[in-house]
């Protein structure tokens, strides 16, 4: 280990001064990149930073995972990545690419649903140089669980850049629906279950979609990236695109294609989910949420009881497809019911939404030992001004 540190110091010393900072993005799914994408966009004008992306765990899926990433983000294989000197490694999942030449590692996280002990890891997280926390609750839980130390220099309260667009006025319901070929005069329902063989999709998804399409509404079905994965542990081994597409009448319903759910959240008047981060994200819009309670899912995903209670408190709660479909009608007629709970939960789980991407970009620049680019300063002022008027 001492020899490796010495070699890395020598490697750093040999790099030319003023060199471009190379940042490597790693991910398991397209959604992982969507968590990072707002930071990439915020720094797009900074020619001192060059972004690349890899798929360290499944190299054969590199093109698929980053299909929607800008062309300026170069795709590199894990083998090539291992040979390159990176200034920083950026991920929103617990990936850990092998990078022998060393780098500063940044964890951005994804999701706020309290699954899989995500908020209180049993192992140490001290190997990360920066932890961009989405809220104070998670930061506190990391300290309590012993994953990091109190006052850790790596811990930064940033927020979730992905959801900035839900509160900064950039997404508008009607234009999104028109672009999707749906009538904006009709109420729009979004069904967005999480992934798992135990999810509501697997338990009652077909039945629920059939009932919702009989109503005078637009229906958008947005599946999790993992529900498109044919492996048993993710989708239950079911081709959900083939199963659901015939059930969705053209011009009235559709299966969402984008890996980023934000525009579909903004377009929806009511959302139906089971236990997903997207459900919590929807609370930022203060619109009715119908939650399908699926005990098997909560158990399989090791959802912490606190997060079950948080989502339940802000939702209309049901257990069957019939109840869910009927409750959609109730929710459309009582949009303000549970508004106070929705706003309370959203405030707790999302730190200063609307400006998180700018904070993350600034933190990354600091880690790279760069002053903020003028374009970043201008964008920061613009975003703050926009939030004050919305």
Features:
41% helix, Rossmann fold, alpha/beta, 13% strand, six-stranded parallel β-sheet, 18 helices, 390 residues
Word description of this protein:
The protein is an alpha/beta fold. It has 2 domains: 199 residues, Rossmann fold; 181 residues, Glycogen Phosphorylase B (Rossmann fold, 3-Layer(aba) Sandwich), CATH 3.40.50.2000. The protein is 41% helix and 13% strand. The protein is built from 18 helices and 13 strands. The strands form 2 sheets. A 7-stranded parallel beta sheet has the order 3-2-1-4-5-6-7. Strands 10-9-8-11-12-13 form a 6-stranded parallel beta sheet, sandwiched between helices. Helix 2 links the parallel strand 1 and strand 2.
Radius of gyration, CA atoms, in whole angstroms:
21 Å
Category by helix and strand content: alpha/beta
Number of domains in the coordinates? 2
Number of separate strands: 13
Overall helicity: 40-55%
**Number of DSSP helical runs:** 18
Overall CATH architecture of the largest domain: 3-Layer(aba) Sandwich
* Global geometry: globular
Q: Please write the CATH class name of the largest domain.
A: Alpha Beta
N-end to C-end Cα span: 53 Å
How much of the polypeptide forms β-strand, as a percent range? 5-15%
- Spatial strand arrangement across the major sheet: 3-2-1-4-5-6-7
Describe the biggest sheet? Answer: 7 strands, parallel
Indicate the mean pLDDT: 93
Report the uncertain regions.
Answer: none
């Amino acid at each position: 280990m001492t020899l490796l540190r010495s070699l890395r110091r020598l490697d750093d010393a040999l790099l030319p001064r003023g060199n471009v900072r190379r940042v490597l993005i790693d991910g398991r799914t397209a959604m992982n990149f969507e968590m990072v994408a707002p930071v990439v966009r915020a720094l797009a004008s900074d020619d001192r930073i060059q972004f690349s992306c890899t798929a360290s765990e499944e190299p054969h899926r590199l093109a698929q995972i980053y299909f929607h990433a800008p062309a300026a983000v170069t795709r590199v294989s894990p083998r090539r990545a291992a040979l390159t000197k990176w200034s920083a490694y950026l991920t929103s999942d617990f990936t850990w690419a092998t990078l022998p030449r060393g780098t500063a590692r940044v964890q951005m996280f994804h999701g706020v649903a309290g699954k899989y002990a995500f908020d209180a890891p049993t192992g140490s997280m001290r190997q990360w140089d920066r932890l961009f926390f989405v809220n104070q609750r998670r930061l506190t839980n990391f300290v309590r669980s012993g994953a990091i130390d109190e006052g850790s220099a790596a811990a930064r309260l940033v927020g979730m850049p992905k959801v900035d667009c839900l509160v900064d006025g950039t997404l508008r319901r009607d234009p999104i629906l028109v672009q999707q070929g749906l009538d904006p005069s009709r109420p729009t329902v979004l069904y967005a279950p999480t992934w798992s063989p135990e999810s509501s999709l697997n338990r009652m998804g077909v039945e629920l979609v059939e009932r919702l399409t009989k109503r005078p509404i637009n229906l958008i079905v947005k599946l999790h990236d993992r529900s498109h994965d044919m492996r048993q542990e993710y989708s239950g081994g079911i081709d959900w695109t083939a199963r659901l597409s015939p059930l969705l009448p053209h011009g009235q319903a559709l299966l969402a294609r984008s890996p980023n759910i934000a525009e579909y959240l903004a377009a929806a008047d009511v959302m139906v989910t089971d236990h997903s981060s997207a459900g919590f994200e929807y609370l930022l819009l203060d619109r009715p949420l119908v939650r399908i309670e699926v005990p098997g899912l909560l158990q399989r995903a090791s959802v912490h009881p606190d997060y079950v209670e948080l989502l339940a408190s802000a939702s209309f709660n049901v257990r069957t497809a019939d109840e869910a479909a009927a409750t959609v009608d109730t929710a459309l007629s009582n949009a303000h019911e549970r508004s106070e709970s929705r706003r309370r939960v959203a405030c707790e789980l999302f730190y200063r939404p609307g400006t998180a991407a700018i904070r993350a970009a600034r933190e990354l620049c600091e880690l790279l030992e760069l002053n903020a680019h003028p374009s970043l300063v201008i964008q920061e002022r613009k975003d703050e001004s926009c939030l004050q008027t919305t």
